[in-house]
Amino acid sequence: MKITEPHKEHIVAHHFANSKHEFDSARLGMWIFLVTEVLFFGALFVAYAFLRWSYPEIFVEAHHILSWKMGALNTAILIFSSFTMVMAIRSAQLNQRLKTSLYLITTMICAFGFLVVKFFEYSAKIHHGYLPAKYFVAHGASEYLHLFFGLYFTMTGLHGIHVLVGIGLIIWLLLRNRKGHFYSNYYTPLEMVGLYWHFVDLVWIFLFPLFYLVG
Amino acid sequence: MQNKTITESLIASNGWMPKAASTFAPNIDGLFNFILYGSILLFVGILIVTALFIIKYRKRPGYSPPSGPHITHNTFLELAWTVPPLILTIFIFYWGFTGFLDMAVAPKNSLDISVTGKKWMWQFEYKNGTKTLGEIVVPVNTPVSLIMSSEDVIHSFYVPNFRIKRDVIPNRYTKQWFEATRTGTFQIFCTEYCGDGHSQMLGVIRVVSADDYEKWLANAGSADDGLPPEKLGEKLYTSKGCVACHSVDGTNKIGPTWKGLFGKTRAYAGGSTVADENYIKESIENPTAKVVTGYQPVMPSFKGLLNDKEIAGVIAYIKTLK
Amino acid sequence: MSESLPGTNYINAVSGIKSWLTTLDHKRIGIMYLLFIAISFGLGGFFALALRLELLNPGQLIVSAKQYNQLFTLHGAVMVFLFIVPSIPASLGNFLLPIQLGAKDVAFPRLNLASLYLYVFGAAFCVYSMVSGAADTGWTFYTPYSSTTDTSVISMTLGAFILGFSSIFTGINFIVTVHKMRAPGMSWFKLPLFTWSLYATAIIQVLATPVLGITLLLLIVERLVGIGIFDPALGGDPVLFQHFFWFYSHPAVYIMILPAMGVMSELVTTFSKKNIFGYKMVAFSSIAIAIISFLVWGHHLYVSGQSDYADMIFSFLTYLVAIPSAVKVFNWIATLYNGEIELKAPFLYFIAFLFLFTIGGFTGIMLASLSLDVHLHDTYFVVAHFHYVMMGGTVMAFLGGIHYWWPKMFGKMYSEKAAIVAWFFIMAGFNMVFFTQFILGTKGMPRRYYSYLDQFQPLHAFSTVGTWVLTVGFLIMAFYLVESLLNGEPAGDNPWGSLGLEWTTQSPPITENFADTPHIIHGPYDYDKVKLS
What we know:
heterotrimer; B: 322 residues; alpha+beta; Immunoglobulin-like; Cytochrome Bc1 Complex, Chain D, domain 2; elongated; C: mainly alpha; Cytochrome C Oxidase, Chain A; 16 helices
C-alpha cells in the first residue's frame, strides 16, 4: 500500500457551497435512507409479531433448535466490527491512512466471520430439514414449525444480503483509501458506510433475541 | 356466453340503488341519498361560486383588478369551511358506523346456512344436510345467517338487493346475516377477483314464504324424481353450475363445450380416450385425472355433490347435444 | 421578447445521445422521465381501450377471460407503478424543484440518474412479464390467488419492487434538496406550494414504499419456496397481505394526488395573478394529509372480516383525511376572488381538476361510510371513484402542469386553439366513461368482470364509446405538442407573467439554472407587492 503519497485534494461538487454543505447533505440523505431500511425490516418484524401471536408454541419449539451460542458469537463479532468501523473513520479524520485500511480490513474479516458462522448454522438447519414450508422435511416437528423457519430464513437471509453489500462497500472504501481519497477534510463515504454498518449491526441485535432467545 | 337472468332486474328501480329487499337496505339507501343530495347541493354551490368568480374577474379590456394588498387569509372564513364539514362528516361516519354494527351481529334465532366458495361456484348446506349449488332458498321475514368459507382463493359474497357483501376466505369463517323483506329471486355475485371464471361465479337467492320454504326443504333433492334423465341433466347443467365453464352451443369457455362431446376422442397429457359414459363419470368425480389438452386443471370435483342418478342424467343430456 | 431561442440552454449545451444518457442535469433527467412516463401512459391507455372494447357486449368479443384478466392487471400495474406514481414528481418535480429553490441541481445528481435507470430497469421487468405470460392477479396482487396462479407474477412484482426503489431514491433526493439546497433568502414559508407538495410526497415515498418492497418480496419468496405466511393452506393469513399491501398503497394514493394539488396552487395563482389564499393552510394540509394517510389503509378492508373496532377507527380517520383536501379546494376558489383571470389552456385543466376531483371527493365520502361501503365495495362505483380522483385529479393537474411549464421546458408555445379542442374531448370522454360507471356500481355491477348480466349492456357500451372520445382528445394533444416541439413559436422567458422563481431565469434554462445565485426577497405569489417589469 502506497501510504507515503500525499492524499488527493477533494473537489466539492459544483452545486454545493462548500465541503461542509456537501457532507451535511450526504449525511441527511443517509439517515433518510436508513429510515426506509427501518421500515423495510419493520414490515418483517410485524410479520414476526403476527406469527408469534398466532402460533406462540412454534417459537418455543424453535428456541430449542437454534443454537443460541452461535447467535451470541455472531452478535459479539458484529459489535466488535462496529467498533473497528468507528476506528477506521477516526483514523481518516487524523490522516492516518494505513490505520484506516487496517481497521477496514478488520471490519471486513469480522463480516466474513459472521457469514461463516451463519453458513454453519444454515447448513445444520438444512441438513435436518428445517426449511421453509414447501421443502420442510424435518421429522417430529409440530404442524406449523415451517412458518417459523420460513420467516427465519427470510429475515436472516435479508440481513445476510445486507452484510454482503456491506463487504462490497468496505472493499470499495479500501480501494479509494489506497488512492488517497480520504483525509481529515473529506471522509464522507467512510462516514456513510459506517452509518450503514451500524444499522446492519443493529438489525442483528434485534434479530438475535427475537429468534434465538425468546422462547 | 349470455347470462340469461332469472333474477329480478337490478337496473329497474326508481332511485340509484337496486330495489331494496332486506331490512338493512332502507337505512343504507337513506344514507346514500343523504350524502348524494348533500353533495349535489355543495357541488352546485362550488360550481356557481367558481363560475361567478371566473366571469366577474376574468381578464378583459377595461377591467382592472382592485388594487391594494390581497386578502391572504380570513380566520372566520377558514373556520367556516373547516369546522362544519368536519361536523357533517362525523355525523355521516356515525350513521354509517351504526348501520354497519346492525349488519355485524346476527340475531340469535337466525337460520344458519353454511356457504362454501370455490372456483367458480357457490355451494350451500342447510342444517338438515340439504346441499345446493348456486341457489339458496330462504324464507321471507326471517333472519338468515351465512357462515362462509372458501376452499381455494378469496371470494366475496354479494347480494345487491340486500346491500350485503362479505369476503369468503380460505381457512377462516366469515359471517353475514340478512333478513329478506319480500319474496323474489335475487342475484348473487362474487366480488373478489378469483380468476378466469370470476364473472361466472354467480348464484341466486330465492326468497319464498315460510310455508313454501318448509315445503321446499322437506322435498329438497327429491323434486326431480319424475324427470326423464336428459331433462334432469339439463336442469342440473344450470342448477349445479356446469354452465359457468361449459357451453352447450360449441363456444369455448373455461372448459370444453359439451356440444358433440359424447363419442369424441379426447386427447390429454399422456394419452387419449373416447368420451364415453365412464370417461364423463370420471371427469365429473375426478376432473384432474384426464385434462383435455389446451385446458387448465381448474375444475373442482363433484364427487358427493351428484348422485349416480344425477350423473346418469348429465350423461344423458350430453348425449342429446349433437 | 426575443424572436429566437436564447443561445445556450440545457438542451443544446452538449449534444449527442450519450450526453443525455450520462447526464447529471436534473432538467434533462426530468425530460427523459417525461418521455418514459408518456410512453407508459400510452401503453396503459392501450390496455384500457382493449379491455373496454371487450366489455362492449356481455360475451366474448376480442379476448378470452384469461386475456381480459391479464389486460386489466397490466392496465392497473402500468398506470400505477409506471405512470402515475412517478408522473408529476419524477418529471415536472425533477425539472422544477431545484429551480423553484434557486439551486443548481438536486442534492444528489448521480442518485437522481440512478433512479431513472432503476425506473427503466423496473419497467423492463414489467414488459418482460407482459410478453411471458402476463400476470392476471390484478395490480393489487392479492394472495392466495397471486401465489397460486400460473402466470408470470414474479417478474411483474420484481418490476414493481425495483420501481419502488426508484421512487424511494427520488424521495430521499427531494427531501435533502428541500432541506439543504434552498437559495439565500428562501425561507420555508417562501417555498412555492408545488415544492411543499413535493416535500410532503417525498416523505410518504420514503416511509411507505419500503413496506411495499418487503410485501412484494415476501410474495416472491412465497411463490418460490412457499414460506407460507400468506398461505392459508400452510397456516398463514391471506388478509395479512392486504394489510401490508394497503399500508403502502393507500399512502401511495397521496403520492399520486399531493403533487397534483401542488400544481393546482401554481396554476391558480399565476392565472389569476393573485396571492394564494391561506398559504400556510395549503402547505400544512399537505403535511397533514401525508401523516394521516398512513392511518387509513384499513378502509380497503371493511368487508374482509377485520374487527369491527378496526373498521370504526379506519372509517373515522378516513373522514379526517378528507377535510384537508376539501380545505384546499376552498382555498383555491377563494384565491380567484378579486383576481385577473386568464382562461388559458393550463387554467382549463385547473377547472377540470376542480370539477372532477370534487366529484371524486364526494363519492369518497360515500365509500368511507362503513355501511354504505358494504354495498359499493368492489363494484364499478369504486372504479369510477378512483378514476375521478386519479385521472380526474392527478392526470388533469399533470396535463395542466405540462401545458403551464411547456414553454419553460422547451422554450416554445403550442397551439392554444388545439389545446382547447383537446380539453373538450378529454372532459366529455372522461365523464362518459366514468360517470356511467358510478351508475353501474350503485346498481351492483362488480368490478373485474369479464362478462356481465345483459341488463348492464347499454351502460357498458356508453362507457366504452366514451373511451374513444377520450382517445381522440389525447391524440389531438399528442399531435399539437409534437408540432410545438418541431415548429412552435418561441415563447419568451415568462409567457404567463408569473412571479414564480422558475420564471425569472431564461426559458429553457441554462444548465446551471441561474447565471447568478438568486437572492429571494419576495414570496412566489406576491402579485400585490411586486409589479413585473
